[in-house]
Amino acid sequence: MSITIDNAEVAALLADLAATTHRAAPDLLLELLRRERARVAEDRETDCADAIASGRLLHERTYASPLIASRPIDEILAYDENGLPV
Fold it and tell me: How far apart are CA 63 and CA 16, in angstroms?
């Protein structure tokens, strides 16, 4: 598979990096792509861990809150056995 680079800045940066490191452009691209893939995967794992922690915190706060009304739900809503308001 070949890649055509139509962006002058990308081509210049790649050529400069290849000349500086004395490595072939395909090797540099492969390494950069692998690093980016690892970074994205790490970010995704971090985002998932943050979401789980946030959900746990919400759960803990909700269940730590005192009950405002200790009456049964039927009394609070005030509906009779037929579902009509009392």
Answer: 59
Pseudo-torsion of CA 56, 58, 59, 61, nearest 10°? 120
Supply the pTM of this predicted model: 0.59
What is the per-residue pLDDT across 10-35, written as a single tens digit (0 to 9) for each?
A: 999 999 999 999 999 999 999 999 99
Does residue 74 surpass a pLDDT of 70?
Answer: no
CA dist 13 and 5 (Å) reads: 11
φ and ψ of 54, to 5 deg: -65, -40
**Whole-angstrom distance, CA of residue 46 vs CA of residue 39:** 10
Rounded CA Rg of the chain: 30
